[in-house]
Write a structure and sequence with these properties.
The complex is a heterodimer of chains A (338) and B (233). With 338 residues, chain A is mainly alpha-helical. In chain A, 67% of the residues lie in helices and 2% in strands. A two-stranded antiparallel ribbon of chain A has the order 1-2. In chain A, strand 1 (264-266) and strand 2 form a beta hairpin. Chain B is mostly helical and 233 residues long. Chain B has one domain (3-227): Ferritin (Up-down Bundle), CATH 1.20.1260.10. In chain B, 63% of the residues lie in helices and 0% in strands. Chain B has nine helices and no strands. The longest helix of chain B has 26 residues, at 109-134. Classes of the chains: A mainly alpha (338), B mainly alpha (233). At the A-B interface, helix 4, helix 5, helix 8, helix 13 and helix 14 of A face helix 1, helix 2, helix 3, helix 6 and helix 7 of B. The complex binds fe (ii) ion (FE2) (2 copies). One fe (ii) ion (FE2) binds next to helix 8 of chain A.
Chain lengths: 338, 233
């Protein structure tokens, strides 16, 4: 959005008429014009974005833990390389998303402090453990798969920096999804023990993956406003159904069973119906009572705290370099002046 | 001894160690950088091991005494200073070694020519952090100086002659020492004094003699592959 509101700001009318600003903002959003960091935006819009983008960034970095858990034990060098590259991508996603969030006037340090203090969330899915090697495949196939279904519409999000970050991230997530699928396929077609390992992983990850789309539409707290702001474009249930429709035929090719006896084709709707989701478990995990909530946060805090002296050293060194540069610069100025 | 195997083992073991950092680095940028370095090394290892045999057979089915890596690379990560000291010592060595190999006409020349560019980045990364830690705070200076001292006793082994290698490793010792001294000088750190090898006559990593942490590292790395003999992944 560069025309109306930015011009108003440049002309110094920015404070003149809040109603006009709000109206221009609403009109721009309705016209699918991208909002950029320097544009005027309602505080509630900014707050919603900060909350959502920070949660997304935190999910990328907490999400490194369950997968990094298997880097040292990957059963072939090729798989080790793929997994390392994936975990590295997730760190990269964290970086883009923190930078994108910083365009809203918050700092990464501040966001990390809030994560460590438990005041900002990350995706609940990462509170489940990776117990076997097959979990790495199940995460790629189902968790990255669900993330893509959620995130592809975000590439058209009304906030420019978020939308652009998502374009880049979605490309990499789709690699992760295919690699996870391919890992599971190798297991499923491998020895009976490998097949059992793959089935067990899918049994444990299927339902939590469906929960990644959030509560059912009639209970979703933030949905309506986010839709109006073009941050969100589809309802939770809509995206969840889309995901199920993608997974069912893939599971068939994999030769693995999705652990839902009620899963069946709905002729009328042209999609699959799934059985009831255990929302009590979802709420409990959200509340901190998942299998790994405590470990994930503790691990994150420990990494941050034990790295404090390193960050301090980098800051102190940079300050000394600046000081030295300034001293040298002064000398040069004086010479030039003389 | 098979030189490609020895160099491949160096790269594999260091990649495995660096892989332990993923998700635990002091800043997110370092999660990216350390994993990146690990990936480069893993790529080098796969190429080098494949010159000798099946990469997975070699990585997952050999016993500790069959590994020919130098003891330096198997040392545990310790704190960030220990990791950076290990990186500095090793990447300066690898850059000199691959640089020399790339200029020669041996079968390792093409690989070395490609790897030397990666290794130059690893060396730069280690150098930048050595400067920051050495000339950062009192605490970082102290930790870095201690780490350099702790790992010093594993540096002599790097320059023992390696049979079948087209490069005279002992000849790289002086340039290595000179470069290390240069970086440490700029970082306000001292080059460690004392022995650069242990007094054990059994030998060291190149002879298949390793340190205690190596067995545990291998147990973790190999267990899944070994638990499913004949399976493919
Ligand atoms: Fe990601
Ligand atoms: Fe991903």
């Amino acid at each position: 959005m560069t025309t109306t509101v930015t011009t108003a700001q440049a002309d110094g009318h920015a404070t003149a008429d809040p109603h006009a600003l709000a109206a221009a903002f609403d009109a721009a959003v309705a016209d699918e014009v991208r909002i950029e960091p320097r544009d005027w935006m309602p505080d509630a819009y900014r707050d919603t974005l900060v909350r959502q983008m920070a949660q997304h960034a935190h999910s990328e970095i907490i999400g490194m833990q369950p997968e990094a858990n298997w880097i040292t034990r990957a059963p072939s060098l090729r798989r080790k390389a793929i997994l390392m590259a994936k975990v590295q991508d997730e760190a990269g996603h964290g970086l883009y998303l923190y930078s994108a969030t910083e365009t809203l006037g918050v700092s990464r340090d501040d966001l990390l402090d809030k994560l460590h203090a438990g005041r900002q969330r990350y995706s609940s899915i990462f509170n489940y453990p990776t117990l076997t090697w097959a979990d790495v495949g199940a995460i790629g196939w189902l968790v990255d798969g669900a993330a893509i279904t959620n995130q592809v519409p975000l590439c058209r999000c009304s906030y420019g920096p978020y939308a652009r970050a998502m374009v880049r991230i979605c490309k990499e997530e789709s690699f992760h999804q295919r690699q996870g699928y391919e890992l599971l396929l190798a297991l499923s077609r491998g020895t009976p023990e490998q097949h059992a390992m793959a089935q067990d992983a899918v049994n444990r990850w299927w339902w939590p993956s469906l929960m990644m789309f959030g509560p059912p539409d009639d209970e979703s707290a933030h949905s309506a406003q986010s839709m109006a702001w073009r941050i969100k474009r589809h309802s939770n249930d809509e995206l969840r159904r889309r995901f199920v429709d993608i997974c069912v035929p893939q599971a068939e090719i994999l030769g693995l069973t999705l652990p839902d006896p009620d899963l069946r084709w709905n002729e009328e709707r042209g999609g699959y119906d799934h059985g009831p989701i255990d929302w009590a478990e979802f709420r409990e995990v959200l509340r901190g009572n998942g299998p790994c909530n405590r470990e994930r946060l503790e691990r994150r805090r420990a990494a941050h705290e034990s790295g404090a002296w390193v960050r301090q050293a980098a800051v102190a060194y940079a300050a000394k370099q600046r000081e030295a540069g300034r001293a040298a610069g002064h000398g040069a100025d004086q010479e030039a002046g003389a | 001894m098979n030189a490609a195997l020895a160099l491949g083992d160096d790269a594999l073991v260091l990649a495995q160690r660096l892989g332990e950092w993923a998700g635990n680095a002091p800043v997110l940028e370092e999660d990216v950088a350390l994993t990146n370095i690990a990936l480069d090394l893993l790529g080098q290892a796969r190429t080098l091991l494949s010159l000798t045999g099946d990469e997975d057979e070699l990585a997952f089915r050999r016993e500790a005494h069959e590994f020919r890596n130098v003891q330096l690379v198997e040392q545990p990560n310790g704190d960030f200073a220990d990791t950076i000291a290990r990186q500095l010592y090793f990447s300066v060595y690898q850059e000199l070694l691959y640089g020399a190999l790339a200029e020669g006409g041996s079968e390792l020349a093409p690989l070395a020519g490609k790897a030397v560019k990666e290794v130059a980045y690893h060396r730069d990364h280690a150098e930048q952090w050595t400067l920051r830690l050495g000339d950062g705070t009192e605490e970082s200076h102290r930790r870095m100086q201690r780490a350099l001292g702790t790992l010093w006793r594993f540096t002599g082994e790097l320059f023992e002659p390696l049979e079948g290698l087209a490069v005279e490793l002992p000849a790289l010792h002086a340039p290595w020492r000179e470069r290390i001294a240069g970086v440490l000088g700029r970082a306000t750190l001292e080059i460690p004094e004392g022995a650069d090898r242990t007094a054990w006559s059994a030998g060291a990593g190149r002879q298949g003699v390793h340190t205690e942490p190596f067995g545990r590292m291998l147990a973790e790395m190999q267990y899944l592959h070994r638990a499913h003999p004949g399976a493919s992944w």
